[in-house]
Hints:
Blueprint: E1 3-8, E2 18-23, E3 30-31, E4 36-41, E5 46-50, E6 55-60, E7 67-68, E8 73-79, H1 96-99, E9 116-117, E10 125-132, H2 136-147, E11 152-156, H3 163-168, H4 170-188, H5 203-227, E12 231-234, E13 236-241, E14 244-249, E15 252-263, E16 267-269, E17 282-283, H6 285-289, E18 297-301, H7 305-317, E19 320-324, H8 336-349, E20 352-354, E21 357-364, E22 369-375, E23 383-386, E24 388-391, E25 395-397, E26 430-432, H9 443-457, E27 471-473, E28 479-483, H10 486-492, E29 497-502, H11 507-512, E30 518-523, E31 529-535, H12 539-551, H13 556-561, H14 571-581
Parallel strand pairs: 10-11, 10-15, 11-12, 15-26, 17-24, 18-19, 18-24, 19-20
Antiparallel strand pairs: 1-8, 2-4, 2-7, 3-6, 4-5, 5-9, 6-8, 13-14, 14-15, 16-25, 21-22, 22-23, 27-28, 28-31, 29-30, 30-31
The structure holds flavin-adenine dinucleotide.
Amino acid sequence: MSQTTTVEVPDIGDFKDVEIIEVLVQPGSTIAPEDPLITLESDKATIDVPAPQAGTVKSVHVKTGQRVSQGDPILELEAGAEAADSEASPAPAEDTEAASAEPAGAARASSTPAPQAAADPNTDSQCQVLVLGSGPGGYTAAFRAADLGLDVVMVERYPQIGGVCLNVGCIPSKALLHAGEVLHEAERFAALGIKFGEPEIDLDGLRGYKDKTVKKLTGGLKQLAKQRKVRVVQGVGEFTGAHSIAVEGDDGREVIGFEHAIISVGSQAVKLPGFPWDDHRVMDSTDALDLADIPERMLVVGGGIIGLEMACVYESLGTKVTVVELSDTLMPGADRDIVRPFEKRAKKRFENIFLKSKVAGAEATEQGIVCRFEGEAKGLPEEDTFDRVLVAVGRSPNGAKINAEAAGVQVSERGFIEVDSQQRTNVGHIFAIGDVVGQPMLAHKATHEGKVAAEVIAGHKVHFDARAIPSVAYTHPEVAWMGVTEEQAKADGIEYTRGVFPWAASGRAIALGAEDGMTKLLFDAEGRVIGAGLVGPSAGDLIGEAMLALEMGAEMEDIGLTVHPHPTLSETVAFAAEAAHGSITDILPPKKG
Ligand SMILES: Cc1cc2nc3c(=O)[nH]c(=O)nc-3n(C[C@H](O)[C@H](O)[C@H](O)COP(=O)(O)OP(=O)(O)OC[C@H]3O[C@@H](n4cnc5c(N)ncnc54)[C@H](O)[C@@H]3O)c2cc1C
């Protein structure tokens, strides 16, 4: 049976009381979804209002010259099977209800289609999707949208695309951590019968290797953008309206109109007050990755992942590193047992680790940066002088720096942009992804959110539905965890079974000198994986298997019965499952009871 619906003027951003300059349909017209119904013209733009669905126009409520606002009825539409079907290139989704696979938790966009901006005389160019920021979230969204047939512009303030991750984050830090690990290995091999001479560190060479690694990737991205016909515009972008962004670059100002935007402007290091930031010896992670020199003594403020990774880099190059952390543990968020092997090694290799302590003030002097300490750590000095200080106490989102209010996008006081599970902001045609939408601030979260945003815009019925997001500290040794931690399970009263395999019983780990490693899996009452923690070389790679098990709803028997290659570290995942199951033979099965 056919059904008649009233089509209303949709949310048209900051337009109100806008003139209809053309009515494009009449009673009896058969229309396809997205067919233009009326054309509106304001002093800012000309906008076609598209049909939300196929059908036959029964009656038209408006006429040319009439002024309308959001919610005014346009026409009565009878939905029918005979209605024309649209088949052209992917029609961008404008309707949260239509595009949503399941009710997306906080979906709050209007259920009427957002208007498609027709060429705005005030813009210099136009696109279907504008991606603001080219980090892992941004470039993934841009590339996916382009692959789905959409016309995409990506705006980036820096000449190199790739964002924090590629340029001053994940990639350069891992290049340096790898070099550091090789230095450690070379040192360790002296006891195994292979002796190398004292390492000679050519800092320019090391920096060159790191830069080359970054360049290879950013160059590859540039190529991929070109091949996909994603136009990259360099400059700082700011919203000027609900459908336009102005980009200020070296070549001048360009105002780009868009139908949809994806905000992926990421985050920046928190500059803790009280430090003499104008002194080059006080660094954030970006400065630390520059490797200006190898300081004799360095203080790392913050015992989270980024601080500890950089601490490992500098320690392996010969710096005496002190870490000061406000909480009572390093790597807050991970279970103590999987952090312990790292802590043990760090205690030996770092000059000092001060927990439950903070820097109360810092001053630049000729001798160095004098830091005053306060806290409960044993042996904490009142003050100490360091050649360099790295402040790594977290990152703050860039949401408040893009004039989002011009588009009506809400930004929290801290600079985060709230989104629903389809990555939609409070403005239906504007999406946000990555660090700017919240924790955890990790590249793999950003990329997955980027794909969701692009696919929703292209009309796919998807939403972001990850059961867990893994965390990895690429320290020496690596520490990785995902899902429910044991400490969280205990605190929340979650019933669980624990399967632990100590790497001291793994032939491969012994051969690698990684006997202090450990694999731990947590299972719920039905025996399904709910969490995992690993410590040891390649823990970050191994956590991928536990993630797959979690997403697939794997049970302990599934993992234990999966034949893993021997001798590998991946076996330890299967052994941990067998330990929980009680069928382990490589160690004694844990006592039941
Ligand atoms: C030292 C370090 C190590 C890290 N290691 C890891 C790791 O190993 N694994 C991991 O998962 N994560 C890691 N991270 C975190 C990771 O880098 C971020 O989570 C990730 O880059 C976020 O991606 P994004 O796309 O949200 O934003 P970003 O990568 O921050 O990219 C945002 C981009 O937007 C641009 N931009 C901002 N505002 C504007 C504007 N107005 N106009 C134009 N362009 C703009 C910025 O220049 C930037 O290029 C690390 C971070 C740091 C600092």
